[in-house]
Amino acid sequence: MSPQQKVEAADPYFPASGDPRYRVNRYELTLDYRPGPNRLTGTARLGAIAGRAPLTEFQLNLADFRIGRIRVDGRAPHYTHRGGRLRIRPPKPIRAGAAFTVEVHWSGNPKPVGSPWGGIGWEELEDGALVASQPVGAPSWYPCNDRPADKASYQISVTTPSAYSVVAGGRLLTRTTKASTTTWVYEQPAPTSSYLVGLVIGRFQTVLLGDPGDDGVPQYGHLPARLLPQFSRDFARQPAMMELFQELFGPYPFGEYAVVVTEEELDVPVEAQGLSLFGSNHVDGARGSERLVAHELAHQWFGNSVSVADWRHIWLNEGFAKYAEWLWSERSGGPTAAQLAAAAHRKLSSLPQDLRLSDPGRKRMFDDRLYERGGLVLHAVRCAVGEETFHRMLRGWAAAHRGGVVRTGAFTAHAARCAGRPLDDLFTAWVEEPALPPLPAPAAAVPMRPPHPPSNAGSV
């Protein structure tokens, strides 16, 4: 089976999510949201391409909304809408490889959709709303081909009362106020998985982090005004993180980066394409969550730009972001990656060793052990190949798969090519076998760069 055919297979963890018989290359979403009654009205226009067989019918994922109308290439199809699946049968079959458009009008009261981890997706707040869709929450607010391998560009227009700000991943094209409402239009041209489409509606103060200069990345913070003093300290070093990660991983893959802090507390921060979402509990004025600031920023390269073909390979998202935490600590004067790896190894050695990193199973895809062990895989590779090869490997991985999707096998092959020798034993032990291997040899095998303080380009 070719790699392309594999990409077109259903996700084994969520076979009811997405439809591998076609792919979407463009979403245009026009939304009207009223926070008081939590009322959402939307129109979605999708530009799509049929796969290798004619499409007599296809499916979108959409939660329990009222459907207004549906059009396929301008004509009314037959459709059914049950159990989060919108099954559409066009008036005539769509030829293999042919481009087609789908238009869907829907309305209702958005709410989280069920998952093994509770409700995910659209969440109504006390004063606004937010979206946290990983892994299958996107249908809670718009119709989509909900599979991580199906990446598309997006334009999102949101109209809401003018007292509220709207933040989405991408560049703000226009903001137009008429009477008591304002329409915000964002464009995200980079290929984006449906679960990574971020949206937040609330009352925020917007600040610029640092000075991007002529060649820098614009970085914005959107937060409740009362939290600005704490935010100014907690996120002050994010521009230095951006500088370091571009050195280590290559150019930032998107046009801009925004962080949003909500009034509500969140269990964990959430990454989206070009956007990360933090709770008020992650802002304490003492940089108590700085490793999470680094983690979410690193996801823009690993997870967002370079995305998993299916959820079995989630360690490629979380292990890389975890190791980025350790690299930031090492380079900003904190504990070295070797010290943090040793601490993670001690922690894992005291826990059950029944998780296989390359295919953890749906119930364990967000297990803390996957994050820690994923970071240890990167450290083991670093110890095995040396500093220069390791960083060349990271930059090459991000560059070669920018905007694409990957599997574990692609990474192990890439690492071996960079090393100039097979690394089968290393990856078998760390990725395929559940038993925890010994801690990789420390600094003698890897000439760690001496820590240096980050630049001062971190003012808010």
Notes on the structure:
It is globular, with a radius of gyration of 22 Å. The strands form five sheets. It has a seven-stranded mixed β-sheet with strand order 4-7-2-1-10-13-12, with no helix packed on it. A five-stranded mixed β-sheet has the order 15-16-17-19-18, with no helix packed on it. The protein has a four-stranded antiparallel β-sheet with strand order 8-9-14-11, with no helix packed on it. The protein has ten helices and 21 strands. The chain has helices at residues 3-7, 228-234, 238-249, 290-298, 315-331, 337-349, 368-385, 387-400, 408-419, 424-432; strands at 22-34, 39-50, 58-61, 66-72, 78-82, 85-89, 99-108, 121-125, 128-132, 152-161, 165-168, 171-178, 181-192, 199-202, 205-208, 219-223, 257-261, 270-272, 275-278, 307-308, 405-406. Keywords: Cytoplasm, Hydrolase, Metal-binding, Metalloprotease, Protease, Zinc. Residues 134-196 form the Aminopeptidase N-like N-terminal domain. It is an enzyme of class 3 (hydrolase). This is Aminopeptidase N.
